[in-house]
Structure formats: structure tokens, C-alpha cells
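Title: Request for sanity check on Transcription factor Adf-1 prediction

Description:
We are preparing a figure and want to confirm that the structure record we downloaded matches what your pipeline produces today. Could someone re-run it with the sequence below and paste the raw C-alpha cells into this thread? We only need the C-alpha cell string, no images.
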Amino acid sequence: MPLNALGWSTEEDEKLAELVQPHSYLYNLQDPSRKNILARESTWQEIAQQLSKPVEECKKRWRGLRDGYMRSKRIGTMHISKVGVFQKLQFLDESSVSNISKFQDNLIKKL
């Protein structure tokens, strides 16, 4: 099982995406539960335990996956090695549209 530069395999990346998906407060800025720091930390501890990785490493890898996915959506290109992982991250599309809409609404109110 080949590892990327951070020491994560494609299978581990996909598993991380699967474990994060049911917990929208980890990625959706509009989720009211997002403010519950204890719930977020507890969830990250569970995810890290299931992956046998440190919590901070899981958080860092998640940010990298999420940001890479959003960047590829914006630019319109995707590296072939990321296709499987990015398919698992499509749940982010709904929350990103929600976050952008909320940002635009707030911006219009300020004008």
C-alpha cells in the first residue's frame, strides 16, 4: 500500500473521509453544533483511534484533503491518483455552497 509524502495511504485517506462525513460539525461552518468544542474534540479522538493515528495528524490530513478537494473543484483539474479520495469528499459540495451563500448574504447586509 503506497504512502503519500505525509505517510498516509489512499485507503487511509478514504477511511478518514468516511469517518468525517457523518459529523457535519467538523466541516460545515453553518452547523450549530460546530461551536461545541468538546464534541468536535471527542469526535476527532474517536476518528484518530479508529485510524491508529494521532489526533493532530488526522486533523492536519483532513485539512489537506478538504483544501485540495476544494482547490481542484475551483480550478477544475484533478490528479488521477486523487479520484477515489475525491469521490469520497463530494459531501463537501453541499456544505461549501451553503458556506458561500451565507458569506455572500453577510457581505450584502454590510453594504
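Thanks, this matches our download. Residues 10-110 form one domain.
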